[in-house]
Specification:
The chain has about 260 residues and is mostly helical. The protein is built from eight helices and two strands. It starts with a helix and ends in a 17-residue tail after the last helix.
């Protein structure tokens, strides 16, 4: 209960005090420092607080009156609203940073800065976040098996499908490579890390190779395949030519920008 009282008070005070210091040309990852705090510190703190409050209300005040399906619907609606709010805060953070840059220097190259976020950080956050969320779900299956019965042939087919998804997943990452900042090295490292995580989970918890753990095994197939082909795809010219067929019009025209040269 103390947590529910203190968090909004503390975040509100920090938010109000920090607002006055916008535009001081203090940065983290080239974002205005205050905007960074709003986006990555205060907003997540408020989201956790609101989720905790919702959980408290549903469990203690409404739990007996609501079914599990109704609770799921309430939580999903709340989370979707929070996602849209976070999107708005993200847009504001970026555009406010642009405004501050132009305020201090009307000749500032906003295109270069926007490509720094677009080509590097957005792709790292998207792909890294997708791997983390996917692993969270697939490993959770080890502790909560599905009540599902599939034939051996169907189950094996899902593993083949998982391997195919893994190849497509790596191809999608490869297509978003800005060619700078060791992006592909970071992505390959993450793929290997999550593959090893699934392997360690197997040796520690020993999930059976059957449909009750289908989520875990599909996830393992995706990550291990993506990590495996990561060391092969870029070496073959035919695959490079195939990749080029999938790229959108104008792709690569921004790759000549030195993302790490401050303008």
């Amino acid at each position: 209960m103390i947590f529910l009282v203190l968090v909004p008070i503390i975040t509100s005070i920090i938010g109000l005090l920090a607002y006055r210091f916008q535009g001081k040309e203090k940065e983290i990852f080239r974002l205005d420092l205050v905007q960074f705090v709003y986006l990555f510190v205060l907003s997540p703190a408020m989201f956790v607080w609101l989720k905790t409050l919702l959980f408290y209300l549903v469990r203690n005040e409404l739990g007996e009156a609501l079914s599990i399906n109704q609770i799921f619907v309430i939580d999903t609606i709340f989370t979707l609203i929070a996602v849209f709010v976070m999107v708005g805060i993200s847009i504001h953070t970026l555009t406010k940073t642009f405004w501050i840059k132009r305020y201090h220097n009307p000749e500032f190259d906003l295109y270069h800065l926007s490509e720094y976020f677009h080509l590097l950080w957005s792709h790292i956050l998207i792909w890294g976040g997708a791997m983390l969320l996917g692993s969270f779900i697939t490993i959770a299956n080890v502790f909560t098996p599905f009540q599902l019965e599939l034939s051996k042939a169907v189950f094996i087919a899902t593993q083949v499908a998982g391997s195919f998804v893994g190849m497509v997943f790596f191809l999608a990452i490869w297509m978003s490579d800005p060619g700078q900042g060791h992006f592909m090295r970071i992505m390959k490292l993450l793929l290997v890390l999550f593959s090893l995580t699934h392997i360690v989970v197997y040796f520690v918890f020993d999930p059976k190779f059957n449909s009750q753990y289908i989520g875990y095994w599909i996830g393992s197939a995706i990550f291990i395949t993506a990590a495996g082909v990561g060391g092969l795809f870029e070496r073959y010219q035919k695959l490079s030519r195939f990749r080029k067929l999938l790229l959108h019009v104008g792709w690569g025209e921004n790759k000549g920008i030195d993302l790490f040269k401050k303008k």
